[in-house]
Design a protein that fits this description.
The protein has helices at 2-5, 13-46, 64-93, 199-207, 215-225, 228-232, 263-271, 294-314; strands at residues 100-107, 110-114, 120-122, 124-128, 133-139, 144-148, 153-157, 163-167, 173-179, 192-197, 250-252, 258-260. It is of the alpha+beta class and 315 residues long. The chain folds into 3 domains: 2-49 and 61-93; 100-207, Sandwich (Immunoglobulin-like), CATH 2.60.40.420; 215-314, Cytochrome c-like domain (Cytochrome Bc1 Complex, Chain D, domain 2). It binds copper (II) ion.
Length: 315
């Protein structure tokens, strides 16, 4: 089996688990196919016309218990495989421990990524080994699909959604990154590399990247240039909901609902401000859909998350 599972490199424990599941299911299905086909062929030959095999002895009738037993055993076997596969699928959605969050933006035809310190890459993704990585992915135009065969992970990236994908790579090396959703004429060129590095090599790599602005710092500038501060800032004349400490806190809406100001809520409030209006405020904010790119939205969100500390420092 180990020979088989190395047919394509596996760079994570989940990849090896996926292979085990795949080959187990293939082996089991293959065994059943061979068993059924073998019996059909065997009996066809043995009881062919004019063969002298005895037809006198009828087989004994099967016991009801036997029928019930093998039916239940088969059902149980396949439900077990279903459970095994689902557990893996759900496991893939839940990051283990405190993950390192990296933002990924897909666009025709490249993968852009941004590390927590603001280091940016295009069509390359450097990650430390043995550490939970959480990719927060957005698309700027059409549906793309983030596919790393060596990690056995594939996630569609749909415009207007934030998709999460987590993994822990445990084998340093360079692995292929592909787009697995036809996304336009240069779809086949939308490829890249995932470079898994030892923790210290990753730290070293980070330190050699341009000390780019942090995402939150970019967001802060956008907050001004897009005009957000004109209404949401300290000395604004227009009355708009204050944004200090807004991230993660409950917000009372005009229709009586109370929602949590998470990424999705803040994102919607920027793109569709008339949808969830905060109680006590007029729906006067214009939509920023089409005016702010995915990368800039991520920067704004990063800024809003950091805002409480900044306000505290300013005071
Ligand atoms: Cu694509």
């Amino acid at each position: 089996m180990s020979g088989l599972s190395s047919f394509i490199s596996a760079a994570s424990e989940r990849a090896r688990q996926t292979d085990l599941l795949f080959f187990s299911a293939t082996a089991l299905s293959g065994f059943i196919v061979l068993l059924v086909a073998g019996l059909i062929i065997g009996f066809s030959i043995r009881y062919r016309k004019n063969s002298n095999a005895s037809r006198a002895e009828l087989p004994p009738p099967l016991l009801r218990e036997f029928e019930t037993g093998w039916t239940l055993a088969t059902v149980l076997l396949f439900v077990t495989i279903f459970g095994w596969a689902s557990a893996q699928g759900f496991g893939a959605m839940t990051p283990a421990g405190e993950p390192l969050q990296i933002n990924v933006v897909a666009k025709q035809w490249m993968w852009k990524s941004e590390h927590p310190g603001g280091e940016r890459e295009i069509n390359e993704l450097h990650v430390p080994a043995d550490r939970a990585i959480l990719l927060s992915m957005n698309s700027q135009d059409v549906i793309h699909s983030f596919f790393v065969p060596a990690l056995r992970i594939k996630q569609d990236v749909v415009p207007g959604h934030t998709e999460a994908l987590s993994f822990i790579a445990d084998k340093p090396g360079t692995y292929a990154l592909l787009c697995a959703e036809y996304c336009g004429t240069q779809h086949s060129k939308m490829t890249g590399k995932v470079i898994v590095m030892e923790e210290e090599d990753y730290a070293d790599w980070l330190s050699h990247q341009e000390a780019d602005n942090s995402l939150a710092a970019q967001g802060e500038r956008l907050f001004t240039t897009l005009g957000c501060s004109g209404c949401h800032g300290h000395s604004a004349n227009v009355r708009a909901p204050p944004l200090e400490n807004v991230y993660g806190s409950p917000v009372a809406l005009a229709d009586g609902r109370i929602v949590e100001a998470d990424d999705a809520y803040l994102r919607d409030s920027i793109l569709q401000p008339k949808r969830d209006v905060v109680a006590g405020f007029k729906p006067i904010m214009p939509s920023f859909a089409g005016r702010v790119s995915e990368a800039n939205l991520l920067a704004l969100l990063a800024y809003l998350k950091k805002k409480p500390q900044q306000e505290a420092r300013d005071d």
